[in-house]
Amino acid sequence: MSIFRTDSILLKPNDRELGEIFGAELTTPEQAAGYAEKLRGMGARNVLLSMAEKGAVLLDENGVLHKCGVCSGTVRNSVGAGDSMVAGFVAGAVNGDYDYALKLGTACGGATVFSDGLAKRPLIDELMKQL
């Protein structure tokens, strides 16, 4: 029996939260990907993991692993960064292009971190060029 709703498109913990779920300390994207696979085995369709300065990892519903680096900028406020990442991912995944969705989610999260408020489109577009 799945602990996740199978009609849910996405589960998005950060590396700390994922480590807490499994009682492990996650130090690399590859290690995090192994635990993302465990979540998929428990019923999650897509697992998007933010790992701060280590980038982001997506294990998609087809079992394909996608990795993305981070954008550079000055950290101002991390409040809302995860929500911004989810919004960007969902917007980018509409056409099923998970590489693009991961990059857009990463840029949206970064744009929020580098802003005093939520991400704005001009900064998102600039950060997309870094990815």
UniProtKB/TrEMBL annotation:
Start and end residues of each Carbohydrate kinase PfkB domain: 10-119
SUPFAM superfamilies the UniProt entry points to: Ribokinase-like (SSF53613)
GO cellular component: cytosol
UniProt keyword terms in alphabetical order: Kinase, Transferase
Pfam families, per the entry: PfkB (PF00294)
GO molecular function: phosphofructokinase activity
Highest taxon, organism lineage: Bacteria
Protein name as annotated: 1-phosphofructokinase
Source organism of the structure: Ruminococcus flavefaciens
